[in-house]
Amino acid sequence: MNVAYSGKPVRILGFSAYYHDSAACLIEDGRIVAAAQEERFTRKKNFPDFPAQAISYCLREGNISLQDLSYVVFYEKPFVKFERLLETYLSFAPRGISSFWASMPLWLKEKLFIKMGMRKDLAKLGSVTVDEVPEILFSEHHQSHAASAFFPSPFQEAAVLCLDGVGEWATTSAWMGRNNALEPLWEIPFPHSIGLVYSAFTSYTGFKINSGEYKVMGLAPYGRPTYVQQIYDHLIDLKPDGTFKLNMDYFNYCTGLTMTSEKFHRLFGGPPRKPESELTQREMDLARSAQDVTEEVMLRLSKTLHTETGAKNLCLAGGVALNCVGNGRVLREGPFENIWIQPAAGDAGGAVGAALATWHEFLEHPRTMNGEGDAMQGSYLGPSFSNEDIEAFLVRVNAPYVRVQDGELCDDVAAELASEKVVGWLQGRMEFGPRSLGGRSILGDPRSPHMQSVMNLKIKYRESFRPFAPSVLRECVSEYFDLNVDSPYMLLVAPVAEHRRLPMAQSHKALWGIDLLNVPRSDIPSVTHIDYSARVQTVRENTHPRYYGLLKAFEKRTGCAVLVNTSFNVRGEPIVCSPEDAYRCFMRTEMDVLVLENCILYKENQPFCTEDQAWKTEFELD
User: Fold this and answer.
1) Closest by alpha carbon to 595, among 549, 539, 558, 557?
2) Pairwise CA distance, residues 299 & 244, whole Å
3) Is 607 exposed, middle or buried (0-12, 13-18, 19+ CB in 10 A)?
């Protein structure tokens, strides 16, 4: 189907919602105009409901109204998901009857009538009648993932691998992308899911599903793979080609309200760890074992896909594709020459994929390669704020600041970073996806042996074991890491270069687990994990000129082309979106400096910043 619109732009709104990480994306004639997650506006992490504010933002950014849209596309098919739910309960009956009765009222009341609910929400948002809402289409969940991976990629042809918890039925799917078409090759159906295995271990080690998986990945290097064989012997039957089946006796997610069963608990020596309780070597070993198995699945599946397709390039999406350690191994040890990973690989990215699938596959429009890399624009697709907007806010809340010229900004901030100050940095458009990439970041000096503990405990208020990521000038990446490809989205883990590693003292060689946390391992210790790895972001001037300029200024001052880059938020909160969000986070932490475009704020100059003087909770914003 190829629809001509007589010169009128074709505008497509894709959105994801009703599970976790709801988001919206606007494309115009195939170009991504805007994309954002709803959590950034509601300030509720992993916000699942209708993304009203994200949609409103996309329409504002496109300077259009709802009625200017050609299509609205949802990222999955709810009726097929309901079919899976019913068939699952029937196949496991009579187990799970209480869970069945608990879920049915919501489905019968709302989810089976989801299209009408969407039309009503959109009509309210656009101040139009239900009949004036544009046509709503539905993509498939894994089709949306595959489209989000292939269509914005820099490849004209690529194999595509999608791995997540579950869509409608698929938990793992393989595709072949050529030009403007995606050919489905095969899939692994629910309940057999490597994403849900990882989530089961996330829950079992005491972390929250759909947000704590990063913690398991960060905890894994402190552990030993002592449970790997038990996982293979009892939980997962992994074939040489990477396909697998799970023993569902050990899992409870099909019919129950928990991820793991009593049989799982007996196998691994006790009940799940209580959230916020002390971490032990057992949790570290469990994390390492789950990580090792996941990486093996990713490697075997990628090798099989390469054998079947002969493709030189691989694209990845789905929540498991956010496992940057596994991605790094696929790049280093796998058969593909190049890999590209959708920066919003989870369900939020399904909004992008749904819109692009409609443009390229439903409407049959060809892809246009820009010759300069991918089409995600560095993932800087969210709101931006002018200096005038920022100054108006700062004056309103009586926040002292200094406004500097463009030529002075990077030098001034580099000087603060070189003196081991922690800097909040809001520049340009907000990132789309779970990583801060220099648009909404907290920055530090990677040479400091204290920066990791300071940022974890005094800024982020999170677990001390969690590592921080380096941003590095693209042209210098090989001087610091065993990596010589672009990694703009912080989705590849690579070893720190051998010549930068520090020999371990004899007294430290007997240490294991968390005791290794404070042992310096390189000349950039704050971004070197205990296994000498780092989650690398490469920065190019044409993608983010100001962040690149800051790295250059820091290199000129210190000789180091790397900065610590972590997301601009505290534990349990979404990444900041607006200057108000950033200032609130700045004042509630022990951050030293805040940079909002050209405006620099110093903590010691701010009102209500001493411990004995309580700061106004919402600084009278409302």
Assistant:
1) 549
2) 13
3) middle
Q: Are residues 372 and 402 in the same domain?
A: no
**Distance of alpha carbon 333 from its chain centroid, rounded?**
23
CATH of the domain at 432: 3.90.870.20
Determine, yes or no, domain membership for 122: yes
Sign of CA dihedral 466, 471, 474, 479: negative
Determine the Cα–Cα distance for residues 514 and 498; give it in Å rounded to an integer: 23
First to last CA, the chain: 50
Burial 117-137 (b: 16+ CB within 10 A, else e): ebbebbbebbeeeeeebbebb
Residue 231 located in a structural domain: no
DSSP state of 397: T
Looking at the 3D structure of the chain, how many domains does it have? 2
DSSP assignment of 84-120, as one string? Answer: HHHHHHHHHTTTTHHHHHHHHHHHHHTGGGHHHHHHH
Please, are residues 192 and 244 in contact by the beta-carbon 8 Å criterion? yes
Q: How many CA atoms lie within 13 A of 422 on its CB side?
A: 26
The pTM for the full model equals 0.93
Domain-located, residue 464: yes
Answer with the residue of higher pLDDT: 367 or 6: 367
Beta strands in 108-190 (DSSP E): 136-138, 157-163, 170-178, 181-189
Per-residue confidence band for 87, with pLDDT thresholds at 50, 70 and 90: confident
553/485 same-domain check? yes
**Structure token pair of residue 510:** 């007997």
Mark whether 363 and 393 lie in a shared domain. Answer: no
Q: Which of 377, 407, 436 is the last residue of a domain?
A: 377
Q: How many CA atoms lie within 13 A of 567 on its CB side?
A: 24
Q: Which two tokens stand for residue 114?
A: 């989801």
Tokens 């449970």 — which residue?
Answer: 227
Cβ neighbourhood burial of 80 (10 Å; 0-12, 13-18, 19+): middle
What pLDDT, on the 0 to 100 scale, is given for residue 513? 63
Specify the pairing of strand 23-28 against strand 31-37.
antiparallel
Question: What is the phi-psi region of residue 474: left when phi exceeds 0, alpha when psi lies from -120 to 50, beta otherwise?
Answer: alpha
Q: Which two tokens mark 612?
A: 């004995």
Structure tokens at 276: 């916020």
Looking at the domain assignment, is residue 558 inside a domain? yes
For 96-112, the pLDDT digits (tens) are: 555 665 666 665 555 55
Residues 371 and 476 in one domain: no
What's the CATH code of the domain at 84?
3.30.420.40
Task: Tell me the residue range of the domain where 577 lies.
Answer: 387-605
Looking at the fold, whether 522 and 373 belong to one and the same domain comes out as no
**In this prediction, what percent of the chain has a pLDDT beyond 70?**
90
* One domain, residues 468 and 370: no
Question: What digits encode the pLDDT tens for the residues 555-598?
Answer: 999 999 999 999 999 999 999 999 999 999 999 999 999 999 99
Helix, strand and coil content of the chain, in percent to the nearest 5, comes to 40, 20, 40
pLDDT digits (tens, 9 = 90+) for 109-133: 555 568 888 999 999 999 999 999 9
Q: What is the DSSP string of 416-474?
A: HHHTT--EEEE-SSPBSSS---SSEEEEE-TT-TTHHHHIIIIII---TT---EEEEEG
